[in-house]
Amino acid sequence: MKRIRSPSPVTSSKTASNSQHQAKKTHAVESPFPNFAHPTLAEAYEVHQILSRAHPAHGAVRRPPTTSRNSAQTCGNVPNVVEALIGVILSQNTSGRNSASAKTSLDAAFGRNNFAAIASAPRADVVEAIRHGGLANKKAATIQNILTSIKEKHGEYSLQHLAETDAPKRMSDEAIMQELISYDGVGPKTASCVLLFCLGRDSFAVDTHVYRLSKLLGWVPEKADRVRAQAHLDLRISAELKYGLHVLMMQHGRSCKGCKKTGTEAACVLKAHLQERRCAQDSAGRQGL
Ligand SMILES: [Zn+2]
């Protein structure tokens, strides 16, 4: 029996649970680090500006979902919610090229969005279809289990009720998040990608690049794991910056050699920014300001 938590605010004691299962499912309406006051609004805007200048082709215009996209390569940038979810699952722990190829091969094997066929197929057939994407056994199990749960809960292989845009059927971001993470194998990052790229909501997905850069920038405590970092940042970063910052930080994380490795001489606009800020603080300190 799946439990969907109420979208109403929960107390911080709930979000601070230490168990791994809870940590995976933790999506907070209160930061797990309530006393950590970064990033400020100004800090987030500043980094958005710096990255916009460094990567002008990214993040400026929000791309609405279309059926012409491969959901695994685009973090779920398609209109069908179940297809978006499967795409994001396929994209976990692999390159865009491999996950795109796994999605193409899944479509070829079962028919695009033929979720009934995927759900009822022998596990080995699904594993074979997505083997280009890595972790095929785990991902096949996750996908088949989610499809079965969706059918049990809603009577059909569809989550399009999450895409309703008009009142009174339109759901809150938090209610959508809670429904998505109620499915086994769907964590807050996967759910956040579906919110951001499929449903057009403002949600701050923290993947491996965003996580690394957030630590570099001092936006999350050193001890923060990726899930808690997302819970913190989703609350600290203003809605209008979430899409742009996510896309820009992903792009920077993928392309910049200067902050990928320690000890490199390669230039990095974020490292230069941090250096400048440290110098300004030092000089203010020397002047007794
Ligand atoms: Zn960099």
UniProtKB/TrEMBL annotation:
<dbReference type="InterPro" id="IPR003265">
    <property type="entry name" value="HhH-GPD_domain"/>
</dbReference>
<feature type="compositionally biased region" description="Polar residues">
    <location>
        <begin position="65"/>
        <end position="75"/>
    </location>
</feature>
<feature type="compositionally biased region" description="Polar residues">
    <location>
        <begin position="8"/>
        <end position="21"/>
    </location>
</feature>
<feature type="domain" description="HhH-GPD">
    <location>
        <begin position="90"/>
        <end position="255"/>
    </location>
</feature>
<protein>
    <recommendedName>
        <fullName>HhH-GPD domain-containing protein</fullName>
    </recommendedName>
</protein>
<dbReference type="GO" id="GO:0006285">
    <property type="term" value="P:base-excision repair, AP site formation"/>
</dbReference>
<dbReference type="InterPro" id="IPR023170">
    <property type="entry name" value="HhH_base_excis_C"/>
</dbReference>
<feature type="region of interest" description="Disordered">
    <location>
        <begin position="1"/>
        <end position="35"/>
    </location>
</feature>
<dbReference type="InterPro" id="IPR011257">
    <property type="entry name" value="DNA_glycosylase"/>
</dbReference>
<dbReference type="Pfam" id="PF00730">
    <property type="entry name" value="HhH-GPD"/>
</dbReference>
<feature type="region of interest" description="Disordered">
    <location>
        <begin position="55"/>
        <end position="75"/>
    </location>
</feature>
<dbReference type="GO" id="GO:0000702">
    <property type="term" value="F:oxidized base lesion DNA N-glycosylase activity"/>
</dbReference>
